[in-house]
């Protein structure tokens, strides 16, 4: 698998088409309210910026990411949320409902495996992962 596969809509069976992380876009209301996984990437940088999971609404998570990424001030103090820093850059995201993997421990397992695959192929974790 080459790096460009990280951007595939069906990367390792997880993902959807990429959309912009624009907080003003009407498209945010069309996203799933299910639990699942998501990926964040910058269109001009190699690899992924972040791989995450949410036990709440994917739509809610994407909205929080969009508003946090474009906020005037960093809205999160915890370094765990570094991927939500204000960048004023074009970011893209993709999400996936996991069906049989909807329990938290299963989502976390898939998230960890995807981070591991990224590490093996790129030689590092996604930029904002840890």
What does the model show?
This protein is α+β, with helices and mostly antiparallel strands. It has one domain (3-122): GIY-YIG endonuclease, CATH 3.40.1440. The protein has helices at 58-69, 104-122; strands spanning 19-20, 36-41, 50-54, 92-97. Strands 1-4-2-3 form a 4-stranded antiparallel β-sheet. A hairpin with an 8-residue loop joins strand 2 and strand 3 (50-54). The chain is globular. The two termini are 24 Å apart.
Which helices and strands, and how do they pair?
Blueprint: E1 19-20, E2 36-41, E3 50-54, H1 58-69, E4 92-97, H2 104-122
Antiparallel strand pairs: 1-4, 2-3, 2-4
Keywords:
GIY-YIG endonuclease, 4 strands, alpha+beta, 130 residues
Short description:
The protein is α+β, with helices and mostly antiparallel strands.
């Amino acid at each position: 698998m080459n790096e460009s596969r990280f951007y595939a809509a069906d990367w390792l069976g997880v993902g959807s088409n990429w959309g912009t992380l624009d907080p003003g876009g009407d498209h945010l209301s069309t996203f799933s309210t299910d639990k699942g996984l998501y990926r964040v990437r910058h269109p001009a940088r190699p690899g992924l910026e972040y791989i995450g999971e949410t036990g709440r609404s994917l739509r809610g998570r994407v909205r929080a990411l969009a508003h946090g990424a474009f906020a005037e001030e960093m809205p999160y103090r915890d370094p765990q949320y570094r991927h939500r820093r204000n960048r004023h850059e074009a970011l893209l995201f993709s999400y996936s409902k996991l069906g049989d993997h909807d329990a938290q421990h299963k989502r976390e397992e898939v998230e960890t495996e995807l981070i591991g695959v990224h590490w093996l192929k790129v030689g590092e974790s996604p930029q904002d992962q840890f």
